Amino acid sequence: MVFEEMTFELKDGRQALLRSPCEDDAEELLKFVAKASGETDYLTRYPEEWGDFTVEDEKSVILKKRLDKNELMIVCFVDGKIAGNCQIFFQSRIKERHRASVGIAILKEYWSLGIGTKMFKELIQAAKMRDGVRQIELDFIEGNSRARCLYEKMGFRITGVKPDAIRMKDGTFVNEYMMMKRL
């Protein structure tokens, strides 16, 4: 799916642009995910886990998402650089068509500027426009209180826990929490 381009004002007064990525964004998107993964322990991959992913691989992913009616990726640009991205995936199986899953990542320098809230509002709106979707789901890693506050502000509630679902590099295990928002 393709997101119609829009601009909005950040809390610091700068303008931000939301749009679907295009193939020309592939290299910058790869750098973004590697950097975002290194800034926090709360994303599901470490930066080095993106090493085998090529620009051509990312171009293929971008093209697939633009053509797939069940996936939408939105990228946020600030001052011409990628500041964050988010995605929604709509289930297509008959028994699960009422469900959608979302994910989000924002670079640390852009935290607390309203990007996460704006991207979530757009994901929720996309879900509401989709016939039959009744709930949006996400997972977050134990300790990620910033994300949890955003999700709760957007109407998500914890529905379950996966004990010891994440193993950190130091060998410690942390829980992963499931959240859901009813539409």
Please name the defining characteristics of this protein.
183 residues; alpha+beta; Aminopeptidase; 4 helices
The portion of residues assigned to helices is 25-40%
Query: Unreliable runs, pLDDT <50, ≥5 residues?
Result: none
CATH architecture: 3-Layer(aba) Sandwich
Rg, Cα atoms, Å:
16 Å
What is the subunit organization of this protein?
Answer: single chain
Percentage of residues in DSSP E strands: 25-35%
Q: Helices and strands: which structural class?
A: alpha+beta
Can you identify the CATH superfamily?
A: Gcn5-related N-acetyltransferase (GNAT)
**How many strands, what sense, and barrel or not for the largest sheet?**
8 strands, mixed
* Shape estimate: globular
Instruction: Fill in the CATH topology.
Output: Aminopeptidase
Count of domains = 1
- End-to-end CA span: 20 Å
Trace the largest sheet across and list its strands. 1-2-3-4-5-6-8-7
How many strands in all? 8
Please report the first level of CATH classification, the CATH class. Answer: Alpha Beta
Return the average pLDDT rounded to an integer. 96
- Series of H and E elements: EEHHEEEHEHEE
Please report the number of helical segments: 4
Describe this structure as you would to a colleague.
This protein is α+β, with helices and mostly antiparallel strands. The protein has one domain (6-182): Gcn5-related N-acetyltransferase (GNAT) (Aminopeptidase, 3-Layer(aba) Sandwich). It is 28% helix and 34% strand. It has four helices and eight strands, in the order ββααβββαβαββ. The protein has helices at 26-39, 55-67, 115-129, 145-153; strands spanning 6-9, 15-19, 71-78, 81-90, 99-106, 135-141, 157-167, 173-182. α1 packs across α2. The chain starts with 5 loop residues before the first strand and ends with a strand. The mean pLDDT is 96.
